[in-house]
Amino acid sequence: MRPxxxxxxxxxxGRILDEASTGQRxxxxxxxxxxxxxxSVEDATSLDEGxxxxxxxxxxxxxxxxxxxxxxxxxxxxxxxxVTALRLERRRDDxxxx
Length: 98
Hints:
Blueprint: E1 2-4, H1 6-11, H2 13-21, E2 26-30, E3 33-38, H3 41-47, H4 51-75, H5 82-97
Parallel strand pairs: 1-2
Antiparallel strand pairs: 2-3
């Protein structure tokens, strides 16, 4: 977590919110004492999860990883190198987002 003061927060709220939305975490301190934290919505949601929801979210993440591995093996039976794997994944993400 990156420490900031309330004054820093007021001066740069837009930039700090942009950074928080991408996963950067902020620890807001007054007189070098923590008073609050600023995190992304995803991080805040995971804080409110119960054990069953957390387990289900992890299971879904593992399923997505397994599916990615299957796609990589289909596209490259000999196995892609790391650069090729990243390019294929980015291309897939771009086609989903676009």
